[in-house]
Amino acid sequence: MYQEEDFIKFLTYFSTREGKPLDEFTLQLYDDELSPYGYDSVCQALKNLAVSMEYPRLPSVKQIKQILEPQLDKDSEAELITGRIFESLQKFGHANTKDAIAYIGDVGWRAVVQFGGWSYFCEFCGTKTLNPGTARAQVRSLVKAHLNNYATEHHPQIEASAKFDHQSGKMVELLKGLDRLDMNKNLDPKPD
To answer: Mind listing the pLDDT tens digit for each residue in 159-172?
Structure first.
């Protein structure tokens, strides 16, 4: 099990390979940022980096955190969400919208609404009307667009859902919470 001394040794190893001394400020910065992960896991990550790098140099805190907490890239995340959307078709069907929303998640549900809503999605995906491969590609594109814009556009006070009105043959979109928003104002909260 690695300890604090080992952590310092690894950082010193990387900095001397670069020809730069490890100063107190840098050491404190790395320690402050990485200590919540525990010295054992951080040292394991540093050891893996030391072994795998052709020319070892001091990795950034961000690089070390990415090893400790791997993040999916947008394409992989979009594929996972798209998979959940299509799974929910078989799992919940047309009548169980609330469970489908919970299973799909906010970003995926935004894509479903933009695609035409849950009823449309259930009715036409996988039928002769809509090629399943094409539908999946289109939904994945919508999910990726929503993932890229999610941080700036996510406003939890708006709940969106959609339904297909069979009598009129039109899509009816329902937005709840718009009465609480002034669309002319900046939606980002500002400190007092």
So the answer is: 344 444 444 444 44
Nearest in space to 146 (alpha carbons), one of 102, 116, 108, 183: 108
Q: How many residues does the chain have?
A: 192
Tell me if residue 69 falls in helix, strand or coil.
coil
Q: What is the pLDDT of residue 128?
A: 57
Mean pLDDT along residues 24-32: 93
Q: In terms of DSSP H, where are the helices of the chain? A: 4-17, 24-34, 39-52, 61-68, 74-92, 97-104, 106-115, 118-124, 132-153
In a 3-state reduction of DSSP, which class is residue 8? helix
| Distance between CA atoms of residues 147 and 141, nearest Å | 10
